[in-house]
Amino acid sequence: MTARLFGTDGVRGVAGRDLTAELAMELSVAAAHVLGDAGAFAGGTGDMAGVGAAGSAAGRGRPVAVVGRDPRASGEFLEAAVVAGLASSGVDVLRLGVLPTPAVAYLTAALGADLGVMLSASHNPAPDNGIKFLAKGGYKLPDTVENEIEERLGERWERPAGSGVGRVHEAYGEADRYIAHLLTTLPVRLEGINVVVDCANGAAHTVAPEALVRAGATVEAIGARPDGLNINAGYGSTHLDRLQQVVVSRGADLGVAYDGDADRCLAVTHEGEIVDGDQIMAILALAMHAKKELVKDTVVATVMSNLGFKIAMRGAGLNVIETAVGDRYVLEAMKAGGYNLGGEQSGHVLLLDHATTGDGLLTSLHLLAEVARQGRSLAELASVMTRLPQVLINVKGVDKAKAAASAELAAAIGRAEGELGETGRVLIRPSGTEPMIRVMVEASSEAMAQEIAGRLAETVRTTCS
Q1: What is the rounded CA–CA span in Å between residue 402 and residue 2?
Q2: I want to staple 199 with a disulfide (CB 3.0 to 4.6 A). Which of 110, 171, 205, 315 is the partner?
């Protein structure tokens, strides 16, 4: 069986090898036919005049797409291929330039576009790249729509000509529309807050410092000099060492870090302690609850969220709904239940009152707003939950089917859960893409978590090979 082209967050691979210009163009053609219904508009007389800074794409004669990218060098040729595929399919294109994924999602909706395209491989190294498609309204695609795009790759189609081809316009000024939107969501100004912001040499290197300054904060930016090859290299939410050092050495109030496409955010206290996505969600959940803004007093998290988060939420009288790992599953649960706050330990936080996807810059602004509003340090705010020691061991080269059926493994899990009681937990889950079992244990002490996780991993190796 052929492997599915779309992964958990679009199509990714090494640019130029796995993700070629030819594939990018073919994907864009297929996406245009599925999302833009381009065939129905072939021969149309759409007019792009006024679309962009002065107007909306809604109501035009042809379907419209917005295209953004992060600063990877490969994004330049992939953007050209995507734009060519869309325009040759009869879709008008607005090129947004280098912007975060959530900015592209917001502008897909704000400009009335029929689809959005983001070129990024998120926190992956520079040689990788990816293509994410967004539906009308700025939402990520469900599996069924991605499957339809895959199925239509390479199909025969009637190509428009003359006035039927799409037109391409630059819309780099739309970054300001995104920043203005973010600032309208803030409950308070950020004057008096000194923050270091790590942009991962990625898509937020311009808009993040500008938004924070316009919100009133005093800002020092690091990782804000992308050269096309240094994205995520020693900077960003997956490399917090440098941010910790700068925050402490400068005497800043706190630091925030994004990943390459800025859809996630982690933070650092004035003492250099890391504040992860669970802690950020806890801070925002309690603040929203106090202001009666948290829908159904519920937060949506994944099975990997720290038990300390769930204990803290339960202690505050709030509900936690768990999903599979992946922000798309968090989003699905939030939309199904009408909830407005959810996210992941990795820093994907979804504030659906203001965005359609995880937005690192939005998250950081609202986190800083709580520091300003409450007049307390980030360290104090983060103390609302205690992170239990969490140990994760990946056991490779095992038979996932055997693991699911193993009575010996089930018994070992039962014994471990008995030892942990209510102060810990065990999570055994198969990898979705590899012959691997992930063993995760949380306990009241690091030593206990390590001992139990090691024991369970050995059981997996001996019974499931």
Answers
A1: 24
A2: 205
Residue 21 parent element (H or E): helix 21-35
Task: Please tell me the distance from the alpha carbon of residue 265 to that of residue 328, in angstroms, as a whole number.
Answer: 16
- For residue 401, what is the enclosing H or E element? helix 400-405
DSSP 160-204: P-GGGS--EEE-GGGHHHHHHHHHHT-SS--TT-EEEEE-TTSTT
Range(s) within the chain of domains with CATH label 3.40.120.10? 11-174, 185-382
CATH class, domain 185-382, is alpha beta
On whether 259 is known to bind a ligand per the annotation, the reply is yes
Indicate the CATH number for domain 390-463: 3.30.310.50
DSSP 107-168: HHHHTT-SEEEEE--TTS-TTEEEEEEEETTTEEPPHHHHHHHHHTTT---PPP-GGGS--E
Cα gap 196→212, rounded to integer Å:
10
What residues contact 46, with CB distance under 8 A and at least 6 apart? 60, 61, 62, 64, 92, 166, 167
CA–CA dist 212, 210 (Å, integer)? 6
- Report the amino acid identity of residue 366: H
Q: For residue range 117-136, list pLDDT tens digits in order.
A: 999 999 999 999 999 999 99
Please write the tens of the pLDDT for every residue from 222-233: 999 999 999 999
Tokens 């930016």 correspond to 221
**301 in Cβ contact with 342 (< 8 Å):** yes
**Residue 263 annotated as part of some ligand binding site:** yes
Q: Which of 269, 273, 272, 299 is nearest to 284 (CA)?
A: 299
pLDDT single digits (tens) 279-314: 999 999 999 999 999 999 999 999 999 999 999 999
Tokens encoding 336: 């199904």
Please state the φ and ψ torsions of residue 205, each to the nearest 5 degrees: -60, -25
> Among the options 74, 88, 122, 406, which is catalytic?
122
Q: Is 56 an annotated catalytic residue?
A: no
Q: What is the mean pLDDT of the chain?
A: 92
Q: How far is CA 371 from CA 115, 188, 200, 350, 380, in A?
A: 36, 10, 23, 19, 9
For the chain, give every residue range classified as CATH 3.30.310.50.
390-463
Q: Do the bridges between strand 128-135 and strand 92-98 make them parallel or antiparallel, or are there none, so unpaired?
A: unpaired
Architecture of domain 11-174: 3-Layer(aba) Sandwich (3.40)
Instruction: Calculate the alpha carbon distances from 431 to 327, 348, 394, 405, 410 in Å.
Output: 16, 20, 9, 16, 18
Whole-model pTM: value is: 0.90
**In angstroms, what CA-CA distances link 386 with 271, 282, 309, 317, 359?**
17, 11, 7, 16, 25
Residue 174 has pLDDT above 90, yes or no: yes
User: Crossing angle, helix 360-374 and helix 175-184, to 10 degrees?
Assistant: 30
